[in-house]
Amino acid sequence: LRVVLMENGDSNEGYDPSLPVEKWCGDDRLYQWKGFWFRPQYLLGTRQVLDKFKPLPSDVILASFPKTGTTWLKSLLYSIINRSSGACLRSNHPHMLVPTLEVQLYGPQQQSFSNFASTSSSSRILATHLPHQILADAVRPADCRVVYVTRNPKDTLTSFWQFVLKSRSYEEPWPLEMAVEKFCNGVVPFGPYYDHVLGFWKESLERPEKVFFITYEELKDDTKTQVKRLAEFLGCPFNGDGEEEVLDEIVISCSFEKLSSHEVNKSSEHSPWMRLPMSSFFRKGEVGDHRNYLNNEMVERIDAITVEKFHESGLMY
Ligand code: A3P
What we know:
With about 325 residues, the chain is α/β, with parallel strands linked by helices. Helices cover about 45% and strands about 10% of the residues. It has helices spanning about 40-50, 70-80, 85-90, 95, 100-105, 130-140, 155-165, 175-185, 195-205, 215-220, 225-235, 245-255, 255-260, 265, 295-310, and strands at about 20-25, 30-35, 35-40, 60-65, 125-130, 145-150, 210-215. The strands form two sheets. A four-stranded parallel β-sheet has the order 5-4-6-7, with helices on both faces. Bound molecules: adenosine-3'-5'-diphosphate.
């Protein structure tokens, strides 16, 4: 192991200097491990997850590629499982309700699960950006439930680019052309995006009772129906007395409009786990925003890759 302290104080402990490396954005480098690209500070966390994380059969794991709706799903899963009507969401950022394994629990800060908002359920809800190809060995033995959310690649890329521009200060701007180039080549944290999505897609086809695959667009289109499906998958359906009202409340309290209006989510204060403003997880929350940024050439290039990668899988985007 090599430990290097970078200028911003992040440690890139845990990376092996012999790993393939690529420039990503500004001075940031990504390291390739087991076919996926990582920021160095999360490589150690990733290895610790694989070494130390002991999932329980009752755990619910939320898996996602970054910028595909993780924050939304964190608030929804927490609310569904705890039948919470929103009081908790008013005072806790969704990332403080559901921790991310390789970032918050086993990442540079090493926070314990008990630091996060308590739940009334015996199920722990844990999130991860790790791909199925890496996570499977750690999670499969516990046979716990996994919810995977994904989003169309053009909006994911646009959201990622905006997130990086707004939340980090680089000396030079990060041109969109560069972000597209890296994304198309798979060089993006936790990428390639396509391999990430396909890993969980295939697993959801093989083990539908344990892996729930949902898209950001489906959720946007009919949140209530999808939340009902999610609750059924989680084994806590909304079918008791008064449950329809609770379901309606959950849909509203987890909506972009509601969540982004809470002081805790509007705050420019940095999150304790990622040196990012708490507000950076809420931007527009819309489908199709890539049309405002990507030119025709970029759209055609990404669409062609999407067809090529997803074609045989039956996954449509
Ligand atoms: P945009 O940048 O397109 O607005 P993640 O949580 O995986 O980092 O994804 C962030 C994206 O989800 C951002 O997309 C953000 O605005 C959007 N988002 C956050 N909370 C949301 C919510 N409650 N409903 C819908 N979208 C939400």
